[in-house]
Amino acid sequence: MSRVYNFSAGPAVLPEEVLREAAEEMLDYKGCGMSVMEMSHRSKVFQEIIDEAEADLRDLLQIPDNYKVLFLQGGASQQFAMIPMNLMKNGVADYIVTGQWAKKAWQEAQKYGTANKVASSEDKTFSYIPDCSDLPISPDADYVYICENNTIYGTKYKTLPNTKGKILVSDVSSCFLSEPMDVEKYGMIYGGVQKNIGPAGLVIAIIREDLITEDVLAGTPTMLTYKTHADAGSLYNTPNCYGIYICGKVFKWLKKMGGLSVMKERNEKKAKVLYDYLDSSSLFKGTVEPNSRSLMNVPFVTGDKELDAKFVKEAEAAGFVNLKGHRSVGGMRASIYNAMPIEGVEALVDFMKKFEKENA
Length: 360
Ligand SMILES: *Cc1c(COP(=O)(O)O)cnc(C)c1O
Hints:
Strand order of the largest sheet: 2-10-9-8-5-3-4
Order of helices and strands: EHHEHEHEEEEEEEHHHEEHEEH
Bound molecules: pyridoxal-5'-phosphate
Structural class: alpha/beta
Strand content: 15-25%
């Protein structure tokens, strides 16, 4: 068996320790004679798995008691509709468009009410986070929406927008648990777990209790109403049991690593290795304005499409896989999530240096 260095944006690298543990428990989970994939979601054993996962997540993020944690399906993309259906009480919301995922969320919200674009960075191919200190927030906006880490473009908010008292809703799919968060600053935080936490098919939503009501858009399906899932402890119907189980293991791994402050330090150190090299290289260039750089997704180019393609190909042959940039931006992108060890980034930079020399 040999493992590669996997720089995929998602589904993405998971901690090897977690995968080994899951493999050991595959046929017989803790003496119950079956896999977690085979057991009832109504069983006592599974109830313990989901309860423990929630408790560990609450511990990691210091989630206050007046916030619910929901384990949902439908991907992050389903939230683009669920959010306006559930939270647009006045039928108005403000969106900050910093990339394709924020843009999709904004476009979807237009189906359900007035969704204003109050800021955008599309003028420079989403290569920066706009100044959000004094935006034209709508007086009757039900919430202000952001995508906190832009997976495709590699930008991240360093300060949250001034929402002028409105509720902040944030898509944190690609920076979930990469650093501590002040949950109280948000009305809702959500993310697909397949970027920085676990396997695909599960979304975690953290929502302030008072926002979870029966007062939703007329015609909202039962399954798309937060209250349905909140009232049922995320067991209204069969959830993604195996996904919840793996996420639970990742939460335990994060706690063992020292928690989110330690992860933040690790992630800063890791990203610095790559950014420092990009800043000094005469072949490779980062594409993001330095003060908007993500710690998780690092896009870069050579400026020559053929050379980019040659690099991706040679990197893959050397065991550095999934470095091709998103189809909408080209070039390269290294996603260096929590589970990517610093050795992987150092080895990548060594390989880039060698490539630079050979192609000077
Ligand atoms: C990947 C991604 C999405 C879409 O996730 P799906 O689970 O595939 O719907 C949304 N937002 C961000 C920030 C992402 O990185």
